[in-house]
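User: I'm putting together notes for a lab meeting next week and I want to include a structural view of one of the chains we've been expressing. I don't have a solved structure, so I'd like a prediction I can at least talk through. The sequence is below, exactly as it appears in our construct file.
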Amino acid sequence: MEFENLIAKRYSVRAYKKDPVEDEKLNRILEAARLAPSAANRQPYRIIVVHTEGRKKELNRIYPAEWFVQAPIVLVICGIVNAAWVRRDGKNHVDVDCAIAMDHIILAATNLGLGTCWICAFDAQEAKKVLKIPQGVEPIAFTPLGNPADSPKEKKRKPLQQIVCYENWQ
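Assistant: Thanks for the context. Below is the predicted structure for the 170-residue chain, given as structure tokens.
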């Protein structure tokens, strides 16, 4: 798919069909994340693939929306804080690296006709308990992964002149 069409087509899916995600598609999506750039090529993250069948109640402790567990798979990207590159001023880039990998996941899924919804408003403590995430590893973002059962709504975005500056902050 043409890249501009792909990014225009991507939307936050909030209803999913029960159809399974083919292993080939899942592997292509995970490979897209593996190929994502990261600061100093550290790749300070792990992606947990969670099959929702039989786990919906406990997964809803992480994020309570019903549609969160409609998809057959939920992906979570977790940052390994001590493995990330740190800028001279102390800024740890684990969140940035995880965000880039998650964006690759979401765009790859869209390219394959699957739906996703970037979720950051989850209960991190419940995520750590439910998914047995070890100390020093932080859940950064979740997305359901499945076949959409809804349609995109019109995207509302700020015009370029409100988000772009040239040369200076103005």
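A couple of points you could mention at the meeting. The domain at 3-163 is CATH 3.40.109.10 (NADH Oxidase). The mean pLDDT is 97.

User: Perfect, that's what I needed.
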